[in-house]
Amino acid sequence: MDISSFNPDFRNKESGRISQRPDLLSELQKGSKQALAKAITLTESTRPEDRQVVREIVQQCNHEGKSIRIGITGVPGVGKSTFIDQLGNYLIREKNKKVAVLAVDPSSGRSGGSILGDKTRMEKLVLNDSAYIRPIPSRKELGGVTSGLSDAIVLAEEAGFDVVFVETVGVGQSETEVSQLVDIIVFLLLPNSGDDLQGIKRGIMEEVHIVAINKSEGENLPSAKKTKMLLDTVLQIMPGPVEGEKREVLLCSAQDGNGIKELWESISGLQNRIEKSAWLRENRKLQKVNRLQYYLDSLLRDSFYHNSNVSDAIAKYTKEVELGKMDAYNAALEIFKNFK
Ligand code: GDP
After folding, report:
1. Which fold does the domain 68-276 belong to in CATH?
2. pLDDT digits (tens, 9 = 90+) for 307-339
3. Ligand 1 mean position, distance from CA 60 (Å)
4. Short-list 119, 110, 135, 114, CA closest to 43
5. Predicted TM-score (pTM) of this structure
6. What is the dotted CATH code of the domain comprising 3-59?
7. Which residue's CA is minimally distant from atom 6 of ligand 1?
């Protein structure tokens, strides 16, 4: 494969756009949420030149890694948004933090719409000046969930957000990708999850730092306690992401706010320990190496799909496959031959 002729530097062609860059960076550094929104929108553009602009901004960001990056995961309906709403407000109110929420939205790739468009579930946080909430589409054609997300995290850090939550639906691929971008993963479970521990993927459990059993109130309390006991046992024998670290299982009610403070204590206690040990430093190195991989994937895709020979060949061979004149694999090989 020869991509030596591919020039990823789009600036000369797009001088009008590039002139916005210094403004956007300085606005971002002043903490402008508008600038942050604009920069994140550029990461989502289908135009490679837009993403080039924002990547240049990302390269000049000085606050990369200055926040605590927390992944919040769990099945739809477990209470992730309610939980982030409560914890986010607690952090702003009690700890004087600025909180960004990047919510990976699995629906937006297919429908073009967004499950978060009508997101009123973080109703208190959305009104708070110290908070910024943003859905991130998980469109595969831009190089996976995380290519834009990893930039968005750095941009939020540059805008002065010192806690960055990444909310993901606890199923499938996006999960594993997101775990490579955050420091600490909190897994939310329902009180009756103990009945179906087999249903929870082992891979996810191994990545999780802290488990929170949400909706642990009223008549749910007995089953929540039972689930906690079971999980305590399971996690004892299952290796976690940080060697030598006993993983905590906590009960909370995002609805009532009970247990939220304790969860933060658990998160910040862990943060202190991983900061002191080499773990956080090593993890941050890995996060950077992963970013290199995302950029590479993205550059390759751009150079491939924006190559006119390739687009012509895609049109031609897609027809052949549709008409049953060629099988899909050979068609792909023929298309690939045009990538020169
Ligand atoms: P998500 O899909 O994981 O983001 O879940 P949501 O935050 O949207 O919550 C799903 C539903 O559960 C909503 O109706 C919430 O009001 C409700 N919910 C969230 N947390 C709690 C809780 O601690 N207790 C109870 N009883 N309901 C909750």
Report:
1. Rossmann fold (3.40.50)
2. 999 999 999 999 999 999 999 999 999 999 999
3. 39
4. 135
5. 0.86
6. 1.20.5
7. 79
